[in-house]
Automatic annotation (TrEMBL):
Organism this protein belongs to: Vanilla planifolia (Vanilla)
Any GO MF annotation of the entry: metal ion binding
Region (Disordered): 355-442
Domain called Fe2OG dioxygenase: residue spans: 212-312
Stated family: Belongs to the iron/ascorbate-dependent oxidoreductase family.
Name this protein carries in UniProt: Fe2OG dioxygenase domain-containing protein
């Protein structure tokens, strides 16, 4: 194979303590690197003075109704509004055999229960993001997540680095393989329906992602004696096309950004929680939103989840689809997938040195079998007097007090009459003063 593509190879994580083992040792005092002072302030924000968890629940899309000619139209319209207004939905009746879902859950639990040394046989190698370890620790100052991961490239089969695929439990490799195939079937239909909803050729998004890379990340969040001080997973958006998340046990913990607060998501058993990633946000010129999310932990029970990421193949362009660029003009610059990832990687490194939360998900450019890196071009400059809008993953996850949350991608990013998109990093509440969209501005 002359141009073998793998997910590792561009950069990895610094080695830090295994959190599952650490959780077994600490009784009350949490090591400082895990303490997130910002949680106090952020968790105090609720939506309109109400308990967000009581008011909102993310949309539920019935996959069987999407596929059924009788109900497809209505359910497809529901899907469209979920993608536009929420960027998140739960997908039920998705058709993945229950037996595969249950085996995936069981194997995942069994793997994380193994003694540390056994899991470490599949540990990340220096400079690699695949394998067992932690997500993307880039500096000694960076705050750390209260969780461990196993990250694997799954599709196409040529991206698989089997040295990271656990052999215990014995059925795990087969389960991951079968699950990956099922996940692709589900995402294929979703992409077709999304294309239809966007007024594109039905196969447009499907074609773009069909030869793309799929990866799976297994998350293990151990119980923590002071759960209110830590984060299982830092705020981030997903630098991929789509994510399909399966919560493994009944312990909840996913929260999404909504109206300036953190909205807890109650995962339905057997459902996938689907979210739009940054690449789809860019392809749709911001029409579908990639929403920031995070995971919190419990003091009683561990939480496990399995996130399946669908991304592009190396060499594809990440740019708005021309048919979707309307009067608002181009909001994102064109960039190759490998430039996009390299750019993201640089930003994460810079952020980590500032000891802030970092973006986790990216697919680095793969060295070819000959070891030669794919050619890189410098990113183009924007047209005169214009600044590009940054995709969500490239915007700081944590919003300094007084600034608008960039994930509430308000129309005011680009007020009428302005020809240049506003650099969202510097948007203030005053900038959004006359926004009429209740979803965007408080
Ligand atoms: O565990 C969760 O609920 C969130 C997982 C997630 O966001 C991720 O793996 O990217």
């Amino acid at each position: 194979m002359s141009d073998e593509v793998t997910i590792g190879g561009f950069g990895g994580s610094l080695r830090v303590d295994n959190v599952q083992a650490l959780a077994g040792r600490v009784s009350s005092e949490i090591p400082e690197r895990y303490v997130r002072p910002e949680r106090k302030e952020e968790d105090a924000v609720d939506v309109n003075g109400h308990d967000v968890s009581e008011i909102y629940s993310i949309p539920i899309i019935d996959f069987s109704r999407l596929a059924n000619p009788v109900s497809s139209k209505e359910e497809t319209a529901k899907l469209h509004s979920a993608c536009e207004d929420w960027g998140f939905f739960q997908l039920v009746n998705h058709g993945v055999p229950e037996e595969i879902i249950n085996r995936m859950k069981q194997n995942t639990e069994e793997f994380f229960k193994l003694p540390l040394e056994e899991k470490e046989a599949f540990a990340q190698l220096p400079g690699q993001i695949e394998g067992y370890g932690q997500a993307f620790v880039q500096s000694e100052e960076q705050k750390l997540d209260w969780g461990d991961i196993l990250f694997l490239g799954t599709l196409p089969p040529s991206v698989r680095q089997m040295r990271f695929w656990p052999t215990n439990p014995t059925s795990f490799r087969e389960t991951i393989h079968e699950y990956a195939i099922e996940l692709k079937k589900v995402s294929d239909l979703l992409l077709q329906k999304m294309s239809q909803n966007l007024g594109l050729e039905p196969e447009k998004l499907y074609d773009l992602f069909n030869d793309g890379i799929q990866a799976i990340r297994f998350n293990y969040y151990p119980p923590c004696p002071s759960p209110e001080k830590v984060l299982g997973l830092s705020p981030h958006s997903d630098a991929v096309g789509l994510t399909l998340l399966l919560q493994v046990n009944e312990q909840q913990g996913l929260q999404i950004r909504r109206k300036g607060g953190w909205l807890p998501v109650k995962a339905l058993p057997q459902a996938f929680i689907v979210n739009i990633g940054d690449i789809v946000e860019i392809l749709t010129n911001g029409r579908y939103k990639s929403i920031e999310h995070r995971a919190v932990v419990s003091n009683e029970k561990e939480r496990l989840s399995v996130a399946g990421f669908l991304s592009l193949r190396i060499g594809r362009m990440v740019e708005p689809i021309p048919e979707l660029v309307k009067e608002e003009g181009l909001l994102y610059r064109s960039i190759t997938f490998e430039e996009y990832v390299a750019d993201l990687f640089k930003r994460v490194q810079a952020d980590s040195r500032r000891s802030q939360a970092s973006e986790k998900h990216f697919f680095p450019p793969a060295p070819s079998a000959s070891g030669r890196r794919l050619p890189r071009r410098p990113p183009p400059d924007p047209p005169p007097n214009q600044t590009w809008v940054r995709p969500t993953s490239q915007i700081r996850a944590r919003v300094p007090p007084g600034l608008i949350d960039p994930h509430q991608s308000c129309d005011q990013r680009r007020p009428a009459g302005r020809t240049n998109p506003r650099p969202v990093m510097s948007a203030t509440r005053a900038d959004h003063a006359d926004c009429t969209n209740p979803r965007h501005c408080d």
